[in-house]
Design the sequence.
């Protein structure tokens, strides 16, 4: 009996470090903006490709100085804001493989970060933040054609009031960005001063 207890204790001690090593905590990133602080949790466990892409932009400081350049207001507190490198060659990284919501299980809920794209696999350094739940952005295999939706990969966990402030700010009725987004360009775009990972909680 004593021998059995010793073996059980040793097995438990050996198993504990392995369990500890496999317990991953999703990284958090703080966006210090000219409108306030926003913290997002990046779902590296569920959307590893898209999460890694975002974190590369953060770690290489490619998001420092970018702006929230587009606001789509479908209804009161329903739509999205968009930020990113605006296809600036010096800031862009290669496109990444598309991770549909049917694969990751991450839905486009209020505060979710996602990647706009053209064809699947063309997303690079542009990001949207949902205002309100938007299931129409999720993959839907029952639909014809390109039904893969957009790649959701993170969610705002602090500072949604800042996102709403950005969303509610006036947009220009005439401004465009290279001929696109008429009526969706903010009058005074909010700048991302810095984007940094937060230290992991101990």
Sequence:
């Amino acid at each position: 009996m004593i021998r059995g207890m010793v073996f059980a204790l040793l097995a438990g001690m050996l198993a504990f470090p392995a369990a500890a090593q496999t317990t991953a905590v999703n990284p958090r990133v703080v966006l210090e903006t000219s409108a306030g602080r926003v913290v997002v949790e990046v779902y590296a466990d569920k959307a590893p490709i898209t999460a890694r892409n975002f974190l590369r932009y953060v770690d290489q400081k490619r998001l420092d100085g970018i702006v929230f350049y587009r606001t789509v207001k479908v209804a009161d507190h329903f739509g999205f804001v968009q930020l990113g490198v605006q296809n600036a060659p010096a800031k862009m990284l290669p496109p990444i493989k598309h991770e549909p919501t049917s694969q990751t299980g991450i839905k486009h809920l209020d505060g979710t970060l996602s990647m706009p794209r053209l064809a699947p696999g063309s997303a690079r350094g542009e990001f949207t933040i949902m205002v309100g739940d938007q299931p129409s952005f999720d993959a839907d295999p029952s639909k014809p054609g390109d039904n893969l939706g957009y790649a959701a990969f993170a969610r705002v966990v602090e500072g949604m009031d800042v996102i709403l402030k950005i969303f509610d700010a006036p947009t220009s009725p005439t401004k465009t960005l290279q001929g696109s987004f008429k009526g969706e360009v903010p009058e005074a775009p909010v700048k991302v001063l810095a984007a940094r990972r937060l230290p992991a909680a101990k």
DSSP finds four helices and ten strands in the chain. The first helix runs from residue 2 to 22. Confidence is low (pLDDT under 50) at residues 4-23. The two ends are 38 Å apart (CA to CA).
